[in-house]
Design brief:
By secondary structure, the protein is of the alpha+beta class. It is built from two helices and six strands; from the N terminus they run H-E-H-E-E-E-E-E. The strands form two sheets. The protein has a three-stranded mixed sheet with strand order 2-1-6. Strand 1, helix 2 and strand 2 form a beta-alpha-beta unit. The protein is elongated, with a radius of gyration of 17 Å. Keywords: Metal-binding, Nickel, Zinc. One of its GO terms (biological process) is protein maturation. Involved in the maturation of [NiFe] hydrogenases. Required for nickel insertion into the metal center of the hydrogenase.
């Protein structure tokens, strides 16, 4: 379950940035192609925030869908899974979204 390690890293960064102030909410962006299960991350968040300044904070997860642009035909298309294949049949694609994994914002106070 890699969600635990990822969530622990998020909480560590949030707590460091909070500098002792209580954290009320955290917004993260986790792209659909990262293979992170949002419900697992929420569960882990409650576990790893226990005893920290982020205990009781609300976790909001934004999950942008995967998309790519084909280098062969130039079309932009949605990626539903981790296999980047253009509708034209080309595998020469550039993923343009869905791999994000970042802390967007947090509320303290």
């Amino acid at each position: 379950m890699h969600e635990l390690a990822i969530t622990q890293s998020v909480v560590d960064a949030v707590c460091e940035r909070a500098a002792g102030r209580p954290v009320r909410s955290v917004v993260v962006r986790v792209g659909a192609l990262t293979a992170v299960v949002a419900d697992s991350m929420r569960f882990c968040f409650d576990l790893v925030t226990e005893g920290t300044v982020a205990e009781g904070a609300l976790l909001e997860i934004d999950q942008p869908p995967g998309s790519a642009r084909c280098r062969t035909c130039g079309v932009e298309f949605a990626l539903a899974d981790l296999i980047p294949l253009c509708p034209c049949g080309s595998a020469d694609v550039r993923v343009t979204s869905g791999r994000e994994l970042q802390i967007v914002s947090m509320k303290v106070g």
